[in-house]
Amino acid sequence: MSSALPYLKSLKKGDLVEFADSTDLNGASGLNKMELAVALDNHLNANRSIFSGVKSLSEYYSRLASPPRRGSPVKRESKPQTPGPATKTPSRRAASAKKEVKEQKEEPSEDGEDVAATPSVRQTARRISRAAPITDLQRTLPMPPSPAVVTDVIDRQASRVREGLEDAWTSIGVLDRCHAVREALSSLKAIEIIVLLLEGGSVVKEIVPIRYLTTTPPVQAAQIPAVPIKVPDLFVLLTGAFWAPFSLWLITCLLLPLTAAYFINLSWQASTTVRRTRSSPNLAQFDPLTFNIAKALLVYIVFGNDFKFWGVFSTFALRKISASVPGGTFGLYTGTAVGAIGALYEAILSRS
């Protein structure tokens, strides 16, 4: 500790940080004000020949060069010690007061009874008994730090917690997966696939029965009851009860609309600047608007007017599909309307 350390402690932390930056002091960013002042004092004292010519550090080196202010040892030795009035320490004063209280309590009266302690004596004893524990507590406990030190510690801990949470969130990769899913679903093709999966899954769920297989025994120790196990009956795939409704939905809602969208491709005809080749990446092989228009017409003809493809399909297949799709025939129309609106919106965005 040098004689210029109090000067550094009296400065603000911003001034100390500027001194540390100008003198290339390493590790100054993670220190509080007191630690930075001590580290800067050691650094400047060790490199006095290098930084003594810096104008901003002239005050520091002038204080470092001046000797510490202390009294002359000759005067201290020759100064006569005048005897003064003896002062009692708090502990002696407390002991004497307690002794007086005890003597007054033990002094017998003329009638043979003890004289009661006066109120002033009781208040003095009470103050002494209260002050002694506080003095002992102050002697044993360290002094609390300054508000600046507490603020610096809280800021460092908060920054560490924030950095840890950011690193954990980045390592999990939730944002990357969310962006990937968003990119995959932000297309008309994804919308059409979702609509077809909803319709096809509803048809399969309706025409494939669920059979009871067995029941698991209960586990009394873990409080697990008996659970019945049911599985789909895949033997229905060998019967016409499955293939008649499923093939009717497949032809009406997927195969024939895709055929019409391939041959009646309005986007292919409207493109005049791109070369029309089979491998052209800028042209859609299937027109989504034509697909949805063709699907809506087939739904109207087949399910609205009971068209059985010249007797190939039965009324059972028509009714099964109408009952399995959410919303029935109106649900099929809704799916085509969603696809058509999406195709028009995509075309508007591509032209803008």
Automatic annotation (TrEMBL):
Domain of life: Eukaryota
One GO cellular component term: membrane
Coiled coil spans: none
Keywords, sorted A to Z: Membrane, Transmembrane, Transmembrane helix
InterPro entries found in the cross-reference section: Put_GTT3
Bilayer-spanning residue ranges: 246-268, 289-310, 330-349
Region (Disordered): 62-148
Sequence ranges of Basic and acidic residues compositional bias: 97-107
Protein name: Uncharacterized protein
